[in-house]
Amino acid sequence: MKTNVKNLMMVVTAAVMTACSSNTDLYDANAVTERAEVSTKESYAENFAQKYPNVDMNQNWDYSTKQSDYRIVNANRSHTRAGEGGITAGSWYEVDNNTLAWMHEQLVEGRDNRRLGNPFYMTVPGNDFTIIPIYQGQAGAMWNLHVVVDGVDYLVWEKINKTVLGGSDENIQDETKTGTMQIKDLDSDEWHNLHGQWYDWGYGHWNSLYNTDGTDRWTPDWSEKNHVTAVRSTPYTFHNFPVGAEMYFYLDVTVSGSGEWDGAYHEINNVGAHESSLKGQMLALQNVPRPANISDDNEVMIIGCEDADLKDSDWDMNDVVFLVYGKTVPQPIKIEEGDNIEEVKSVRYMIEDLGSTDDFDFNDIVIDMSEIHTISPTYTNGVVTAWNDKGYRQEAVIRHLGGTLPFTLKIGQTVFSAGGQDSFQTNPDIRLDVTGWNINSHNISVEVEQKDSEGVFRIQFPRAGEAPMIIAVDPSQGWMPERQSVPESWFYTE
Length: 494
Known about the structure:
The chain is mainly beta. The protein has helices at residues 5-20, 29-51, 97-106, 162-165; strands at residues 68-72, 86-89, 93-94, 120-123, 129-135, 142-149, 152-158, 181-185, 191-193, 228-233, 236-239, 246-255, 274-276, 282-285, 299-305, 320-326, 331-334, 341-351, 365-380, 383-400, 407-411, 414-418, 430-434, 444-449, 456-460, 470-473.
């Protein structure tokens, strides 16, 4: 059942009548504050309905996936600020056919290849280094590749699909657009973007690229012969990062692959999951034959990735494979039994403080809430068979203050009071230890001192049918500039 604007206003009006019909003295300060609060919330609800006429009011206002992230213990730097180093895209790199052939012998399609590596992080060398995507196996998920260096998160590369680069027909590409990886057609000797569906090589997975010498070799699913003579991709060079800093890669899943929940450690929908080298979803191969187009004074490494931790995952670790080279490459460091990493589930709360009832920028207070499990691996015959829980804590980080009003924040059993924006910087990154927060029920509220002595207004996480003053999103969601309303697409529409 949908809650329309008229019904929403009736609820607010009923609240006003209740407040005004009480036996409280009309001049009682609390009663005046209550009437002002109800009037303000009534105005907010009316303005919200006018601003977002297509938004379904009967929703829970929680858009967070609550997927697990993984990080090195005590990697507490903000993921919202630029770091010291940079990543630069280069010109086309044509993948060496010997490299592809060797990689296929190691990362056999459909075989569990986890024994070839371990959960790992890396350290930054004292020189620039380059990564190059060289292969993509049979995988249904879409994802972005990230690297975290010294606690700072960088987007490196996006898996390209037909939605981004394709034409109107699934078998016809928009050739005016250029992807970050391309394959050369055996018949026409032309380069084409690689993306999309399995059944057409121009849109297919890279699992057709077993070789690029033009020989007739069947693809793994026996659907057709290989029609590719070369593959090229965009290299990315890392420069000026702190020497010795800890780093790791992860895939941020944007569209789920297939899989079933088994009731234990796997999730049926891995959208938002961070498939990380820390958790054993990547492996590093170091004894790699040198490609012909990389000079002898460079080290070479290959990193293979699995894009899902699901019940039916094949763990062939070739859903994306990238080559790493440099004078020295980042050194993989195995996460041993007894070593700890942190599994983090986070929600970003974006809050309106009712200082204004019509801007809907949801940036007056932005708070990241996290529950953090410290975990450590158990190995059996060289493969991780369990992750052991070594501790649990909760923390909040106040990321942004777009509002200027003093407030008191209550999360679970923790209370924090602060002045407005004038008390500290707009992006303070204030870290708080929290107890009693519930990631599903969102037991968070804010009391805000209103200007002109209007009193203290209490703002809670909304129920279905209420105009939201707090919404829950993933921590990757950025906040809006001042007085720029969030787009309607943030909400579920009717």
